[in-house]
Specification:
3 helices
C-alpha cells in the first residue's frame, strides 16, 4: 500500500520538521512527523499510542517537549 501524500511533491522545497496544524488531532506532532517522513498519519498515531502504553513517562515527556519546541507549519 502506497501512501498518497496530500502535500507538495516539488523536491526543490526545503522540508523541515514542524507540526501539521491542518491534520492535527491534539497538537499536530504526529501529523507533522508523518508528513516529514512520508508515512501514514494513522500509523504514526498508533505507534505513539503504543509507545505511550509501553513507556508512558518517556513518551509523555517527549510529546510535550515536541509540542512546545516544534514550530507550526507555515503552509496549509
Amino acid at each position: 500500500m502506497r501512501y498518497d501524500r496530500e502535500y507538495s511533491t516539488i523536491k526543490s522545497v526545503r522540508q523541515t520538521l514542524c507540526k501539521d496544524v491542518q491534520h492535527k488531532k491534539l497538537t499536530g506532532v504526529c501529523a507533522g512527523i508523518a508528513k516529514y517522513y512520508d508515512l501514514p498519519r494513522l500509523a504514526v498515531r498508533i505507534a505513539a499510542i503504543t509507545a505511550l502504553i509501553m513507556i508512558p513517562v518517556v513518551t509523555g515527556v517527549a510529546y510535550v517537549v515536541a509540542s512546545m519546541l516544534l514550530p507550526n507549519s507555515k503552509y496549509y
